[in-house]
Each structure stands twice: as structure tokens, then as C-alpha cells.
Amino acid sequence: MTALALAVGLPELAHASPDQPRAQRSDDLISPDRTDGAGDRLPPGWELTGDGADQHLVWRAPEPVPMGNARVEFYAGDRLLGRPTATDDQRTFRLKLDDGVGAKDALGDLQALAGGRRLDKPESAAPRSAPAPAPAQLPAGEVDPGKPGKYRTVKGEYDLKSVKLPGFPEKVEMRATVVGPVDAPGKRPLALFLHGRHGTCYKGRDADGSWPCKAGWKPIPSYQGYLHDQKLLASQGYVTVSISANGINGQDDRAPDGGAQARSSLVRQHLGRFADWAADPRTAPDAVRGTAPVDLSRVMLVGHSRGGEGVNRAAFDSRYQPPADVDGYPRKARWQIRGTVLIGPTVFGHNPDPDVPSMTVLPGCDGDVSDLQGQLYLDNTRGVGNGSALHSAVYMVGANHNFFNTEWTPGQAQAPADDDFSSGPRPDPVCSPGHGPRLKAKQQQKAGSTYIAAAARLFVDGDDEVRPLLDGSGKGAPSANPARVLTHAVGGQRTPAVVPGRSLAVTGGKLCDQTASRGAGACFKRGTKGQSPHFASFEVSPDPGRYALAMGWSRTGSTMSVKNARPVSLEGSESLALRVIVPPNTKGTKLDVTAVDASGHRAKLGQVRADGLPGSGYMASYWGQELRVPLAAAARAGLDLKQIASLELTSRTASGQAWLMDAWGWRPGTAEVRPSKLARVDVGQLRVDEGDSGVRTYRAPVRVTGDGTGKVRLFVPGTDPDKYDTKTVTVRPGDTSIGVPFKVKGNKRYGGSSTHPVLAKSISGAVVGSHHGGVFVREDDPMPKVSVKPVAAKVTEGKPLKWRVSLSAAADVETYVAFRVERVSGGKELSTKDVDKTWLKRQFDAKPNPARPLSKVAREPYLSVVVDAGKRSADLSIPTVKDRVREGQESVRLRLYTYDENWNEHRGPVFTGRVRDAG
Length: 919
What we know:
The longest helix is centred in the N-terminal third of the chain and has 20 residues, at 260-279. The two termini are 27 Å apart. The chain has a nine-stranded mixed beta sheet with strand order 11-12-17-13-18-19-20-21-22, with helices on both faces. Strands 2, 45, 47, 48, 49, 51 and 52 form a seven-stranded mixed beta sheet that branches. Strands 23, 25, 26, 28, 31 and 33 form a six-stranded antiparallel beta sheet that branches. Strand 9 and strand 10 (117-118) form a beta hairpin. With 919 residues, it is mostly beta strands.
């Protein structure tokens, strides 16, 4: 019989079906009873497809995963494998494994997570223990920013020509809703809103993430979901604009930063139009001309979810321009950002703007960005800039992620919408609707509007009366009731007293690693239920330099002492402000706070008390509460506040735990924001061909601009696949010597393309724009052609059917070929009782009984063969068994399938095997 060849000239040669079971190796022919390696045993719903460097890990969800803002991530135990790409139906997720066989062999304990939530298996039922009650209602502050203002408002829309953004094949819309005052005098400040990542298009009860929308489908109007916020601000004298970003949401899965740079570009595109219209009002759309003129020296940006990360990027992009090749608005800013409001934001790059004041809303029942990673918009600013900008966190008990936007809220939205919080089969005592402190949609929206208005009043208008609502001073806004809100802050007028780091001397407690998942140095014991927003993980590990101070006690009087390497000055401070975490649902933790000066004089500053936040295992409720003790009495007692050497925390309860995030000298007032001189760092991607011979060294581009000198930490893959190596480098504008070198060996054999990643995080004196880049090596050799021929296609029962899969040339990576078992027509089909039961279990996780045709043994009955790297062929074998039943000839039909790099299916020829009775 003539061999049949299938030439596939695409990067993924003869890929197995996305729904295949494990690949069959040629050594299965020798020992069908062998024990598989860990890499071959994948949980239900998971599979490996592809070859070597083009290998993919695929997970298929039993139900569509709602399109959200937290990125879906694949883990093997504690190791992050990467972030997969979703198909339009939001059920199939594919991750390219750049490490080839090495990655395959390390696929134990597979998990699909998003924002710390498990997706690939049902969440375990919530514990039945009663949660702590919600925090008490705070005493009212001097002002209530949630009250409507005195101005009449007007609403309109504009829809401009779509724009092309770098890296996105489809254009992005320029559509917005404008709400502003009609009778306010003079030029008015501008507040711009950017929604997050949500479905893009809908038809009836169906929604998807495609872009542009298919015929008959409508765009989901996410940008119209903040009208309640816009109307409140407009009544108070602000012009507001809420912009649409569906075109980014439908394409940002291809962006290493999750679309942050694209969203920044879109924000600045709109601000640029407002600058044009301010220069020539006659060119403005009716919606803009119908309200007050804008004062572009007073701009506030409001971003929800990935929109929060986008407006954060837009804030520092407005001061330090991004590289032109990645920027969708390569022009200088003609506006000034006075502050940002970030609602349940993502921060994939861990790269906050340290010099623009910010308020981050942390929804206690967030089921999307459930790790509350937006906390790092505060924590990661420490020590980066000069610390003059105030950064506030607003922890809103009982709020979920979606309901801040009415177009994401069931009963209010035009398109399909849902509650993002889910607790599995048993209601959660804190966050399920109707339970505990969970807020209703309109209550949550009212509270959100109130705090957005508070931020505008503080950041844009400079009204210090509203500051106590945001900076941990323990004041509330009646308009936000019944929401229970806690706040803390860094920056502003604060002076560092204790910031955890290796230079501290700690007794009675420990300096713990925020991101370690095990070991004596970890902040949390393994198995701790719940998460801490402060400890949200970075893309790679280890992530050095992130510490807290942990203490645990079993008796009253246990003391943790923390001594700085050099004394610090708290002169001029009114209080010492500590950010302290206590476990959720605990009550009455009490700690005495004592300061010791450089001469050894001691003074008790006071006692702090904290109740744990209401929480369950689903929530990130290990959050630092701001607790203050006054300094005046200590100074009168002779303590030298200019020379504070150490702080002590002494337990006044019988047992407990606490974590100190930091401590600061605090004084009232709103500090003048003084911009720092910062370097800006962007990691680019260099694309090169592999070449045919020799070894070439390429440098991943690291570009430095800005106007200052700083330090950043670079992350590159180490020899251990579970860990990255880190390097601290000093960066200066224009320095081109920082690029990370990688060696690329050329040859003339197919091996698949590969990526050598580089990531960057700021340490001090720098902001990081594009945090993820590296060197992409394109495979420039053709893939081998595949041919299949029978070795034993007609056999007597008890002998194996065999086909040989051959390659036209050996490859440097494994090559997978898939065969689908198809129904036999015109004869009897080989059944589950006609094949070796061990083989059947291994291939399909099936048993022989009840007997059924092999084409019906699984929903997707695929067999696959792997040709090892460096080899030219491997065999597909179906071991049959001898029985005493006279059945006549039985057959099996196998169709060859291949998949290209875009997962387009290519059907190949059919191969038939026939089995006759032994007698």
C-alpha cells in the first residue's frame, strides 16, 4: 500500500485535537501496563496538544467562563505556568508551553485560577462558622460629598472615527457619554471614566468577547454604566465623559500587559480631542458644546477593573511618553492629571504611578479580581517617589465587582449581566445576596458615587475637609450608608517609621515573605483560608523585597520589637499610624504600642484595638486597618521624637495573630504634591529568526527615558523552571546598556518558535511602563511532512493493529499526530471488549463493560502518537484481545487530524483496521 503523506506548512505540525486524551508513546507498544509519568496524567478537562516548543496546555470548562477582568491563569501547584488565550465561546483556554518537554513533565496539580479563585473544579462549600459582624458605622465627617450639587445637568453622546492602536488588528471605537453642568460659571474640571473588561457584544440572552460584533449583534454599552456617578459629579460642577473600550476588550488577550497600554492610549486619544475642542470650540460635538467648557489643568481619571490599570498608565504616560512603537497617542499631553480613582482594579504590572494621588476601592465581595490586587496601588508606591501624593484604599464591605456599573448589573443592564460573586453549592455567610453585610446593587452604586465625589473634591478641588473620609481618620459619609467602609492611606504628610525590610532587627516576631507559599519565612501558614490584598502575587516568582512583620502569641504580654538600622525622626507628627492586619472574624485584638528612642528612653504611646473584617475562605479579608496612637504625651514624657530607634507591639489579649504592614508619622492636612524626577523603564520585545548555524547573542531591549535616576528589578528565567533569577539595576535616561542578553543557536531542523521573557518592577526612583518583553525567536526551518502507513492493518484477534507515523525529517521537538475514532458503517465495529482493558483505561479512562463501539467510548474519542525529538517515526497501536466468541470480521476507522497555529482544523485521510476471529 502506498504511504499517504499530509504536508502541513504551519507552525503547529500535525497537532492533536484540542479534545484528545493523553498522547500515546511508541513504548506503549512494548509495555501497555507501564505506569505513566506525572506529565501524562492530566485531570478531567485538561489535555496537552502540539509539539515541543509549540506545545499547548488546554483546559475546557464545563460551562462558559464569564468574560472578566482578572486574567485566567494556569498553575501547576504553586508554579504559574502562564495565561491562556480563550476562544470566543469562553469555554476553551489554550496556553503555549515554551519549555516543551520540561514544562510537560512538571504539570502536577493543575489548576485554572482567576484573581485567586479556582475555576477548574467546584469551590469547596463555605464554612458554616458565623462571620464577624460588619464594622460599625463611622461617625460622619464634616462634609458629605454624596449630596447632589446645585447645578442642572445635561447628557449627550459622541461617536467619532475609530482609531488604530499598536498591536491590535481591529480599530477601536471612539464613543462616549458626556454629562455636565449647564449653568456653572467658567471652565470646569473634567472627570473621565473608563470601564473594565466585560463582554463586548450581545444578541438576546447571549454575549461574547468578539470584536467587531457579528452581524445581528449589538455592542454592550458598558460605557453607559456610570451615569449615576456622572450625574452626581455634574451637579457638583464637573464635566464628565465615560468612554467605550469594547474594541480593546475584544483584543487584549494578545497583549502581554492585558491591554493597559492600549487603554492608556485610548484615554489620551479622548483627552487629546478635548484639548483640540478647547482650542477651537466650533469643532466640538454637540454633546461637548452643550455643557460647560473644560479646564484641562484639572483632570481626574476614574477606571473600573482593567480600566483602573488603564487610567493609572495614562497618568504617568501623560508625564513620561511611552515608546512610539507601542503608543496609540504619540503626542505630548495638553492636560494635567490631578488624581485617579481605581475601582476593583487590576495591576498586572505592579507598576502604580507614585506621584498622582489615587483612591482605590476594594470591594470586599469581589468575585472577579477577588485577590483585590489593587491594594498594590498603595503598597508599591512606598519608596518609589517622594511620597507627597496621597494614596488611599477604601475597603467596601459587602460590595461585589460588577454592580458599580449598571450595565453589568442584572435588572439594570440592557445586555446579559450577572453577579460576579459565587460561593458554590452553599451560600456564603458574608457575600451571597441577602446574607450578612452584602449590599444591594443600588446601595453599592450610591456608596461608589459618594467616594468618587470625595476623591474629586480632595484631588481636584484641594478640599481638606473631605480628606478624613479617605485617609484612615475614621470618618464616614452618610450618603454611603448602609455600606460599611474602612480606609487607610500611604503618602501625603506621612513620615516613614517602620517599613518592613531586611535591614530591620526583629525579636518576638518575624520578618515574613509576603509571596512565599510555604516554609518558615512565609507570612501565611500553608492552608490558611482567605487571602490578603497586600500579598497579591506577581507574574513570576520569586518576587523579592516584599515583606511584612508577623507576630503570634498564646499569652498576654508577648512583645514584638522592631528596630530600624538607623533612628528615624517623627518630629512634627501628631500620631503614629500603623497598618495592622488581624485575622478575619476575630474580635478585640489589643496591642500596646511603645516607642524607644536612641538613648533607650521608652514611652507607651497607647493601645490599639482591631476586629477582623467579616470574611470567608473565598475572600481577601486579611487587610491592614489603620490604627493610630498620639505622640504628644510621649514627647512630654521626654521621648526624643527626632531619634526613634524602635517600636514595640505587646499583646493584651490571651492569644492571637497580627501582621504589621508598616508604621508612619501622621499629621493632619493635605500635602502639596511635588512631582518626583523619575526614570521611565519599558521592556520591549525583539523578534529574530533562529538562523541556520552558529550561536548569536541578542539583547532584550530595555528602554530608559524620563528625567531621573532610579532602580528596577529585572526578572529572567533561571535554570530551575519554577524560579526566575532577579537582578537589580540602576537606570538613567538614555542608558542603552541594560538590555538582557540571550544566546540563540541556529540549525536546519524544525524546533518551533520560542520566547525568552524579561520582566521589570520598580524599586525606587522609576516607573515601569511595559513591564513584560524579551526576545522572540522565530523558527525559520520548515516542518517535516507527516506520512502514515499500515504496519498491521489486518490482524487476528489477540494481536495489535499498528500504523507507522513517519516524518520527512527529524525535529528538535516532540511531534504529535491525532486520530479520531469514527463510526464504522457497513460492518461490525471494534468494541471496548475487543481491546486490552489496560490500554482502554489509559487512553480513554474507560472500562470494557458495558460493551460499546470504540467510536462511542468518549465524547471526543481521539488517539494520538508522539514522535520523540530527534526521531523519525513512532507507531500507533491498538492491542486487541482474543475471545471465544465467533463475531466475524470487526473494523475500526481512524481519521487523521491536524491543527494549525490558529487552531483551524485540517481533516486528513481515513485508515481502517480489520480484526478477524482467531478460530
